[in-house]
Amino acid sequence: MYAAYIERLGPPEAIRYALLAPPLPGPDDVLVDVTATTVNWVDTFIRSGLFITSVDYPFIVGRDMVGTVRTAAHGFAVGDRVWCNSLGHGGRQGAAAEQVAVPADRLYRLPDGVSPVDAVAVAHPAATAYLALFTHGRVRRGQTVLVAGAAGNVGSALVELAAEAGACVIATAGVKDLEYCRSLGATHALDYRDPEVTKRIGEAAPYGVDVHIDTSGTNDLSSAIAVLAQRGRIVLLAGARSRPVLPTGDLYMKDGSIVGFVISRATAAELAEAAGAINELLAAGRLRPRTVEHLPLSSAAAVHRRLEQGELHGRRVVLHTRATG
Fold it and tell me: What pTM did the predictor assign?
């Protein structure tokens, strides 16, 4: 089978596209023919070595995939349309191949009528958003959620999921993206470049923000804590290299908390819960990607490079196997 893989940790140029032996599924696995995969920031972290995890070479890159079951196992029938968003980590080979062996407890059925492209494009952002909001942020109906960087892939999923849960969503983004944020369900959409943006947030949330999530990785904790409600939570889900100043006294006086969240450390049970919610929204016609670019799987190295160079803001690249495009 053809696959995109590395034989050492390194830059995007370390990725090769060539033939490898097909996977041999273990007793807990399901063999799947891959229709498409995509590229996430976490894929670049693992490929480069920034995120340390177990890697057996040759190591197939990639986290997310959608495809069809090749061999019946564990309640899955041949031809079932399925998806997964937790390959390429913890000793598991990645998704950027024509075939993959997926642990059965990490494999989910694709609802009838849902586009495989839509599913693979939103799987990682939506699962990240779900776990950040509900598992780590403990968002409840009626609470106020601030999403900084709300027009990006994870940001838009955060807005949509929080609004769906009955939260008041304050979204910050560039001026050209504010109407898009409102269309996703944001109650307030604010220009992040506005020098008075902190004041505007305070006006929108006079009792403070219950959950603050910054998708940009800037992690300006001074500004975040300034708008935080009593017992508010700051969820860190980006910014592996950020080193912000923490105004400890202000956080302490608000009885607030900060929690770090890396989706690669989510349990199979947490991911399955997120997948259930994602499938419901996909089946209902929600969670559609904003912009999708289609490329062959052989373009994996180029897409890694473009992502790291900041060329894919708000855009998802779907990599198709030879059989599908």
Answer: 0.92
